[in-house]
Amino acid sequence: MNRKGAVGALLDIYEQAILDLQNVIKNIPDNALTNIIDEKTTNEDCKSVQTILSHVVSSGYSYAISIQNLKGHNLQRPEKIFHLTIAEYLNDLKNVFDFTESIFREIKDEELEQYDDSLKIKTGWGQLYDIEQLMEHAIVHILRHKRQIEKLKSI
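The structure assignment produced for this chain is given below.
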């Protein structure tokens, strides 16, 4: 990791966040994936390590697809997949990064920041982001769920 430019910096930090998450989850036993960790939550994405990781993977693809669609493509977010092994999630996280990196082959540093709202990405939750802001959100999203899983492991 030592890519050049602003795009390279975002990719380096995103990759590091994903590697850090992979490091946190790699020792979780497969039989613990589906254990309900929060029976009171109304957020279906936070009921188990499995649902958290499926959400993280699905969101990772969604961010990259939103960026690619800004370039005139019309890709759809893949369906959320619930795996039964940590190895599958480790592979999924690697694939999310590889896919994101491939999307950024079309992005130049000067395209990251956009002040014209009509040229920004409208997220599924209604927020407008330029590419840089969406990637910053993607990075923090990984870090927040990494922290969530770290806290669960310490209980």
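Interim note for the steering committee: The chain has a mean pLDDT of 95. The first helix runs from residue 5 to 25.
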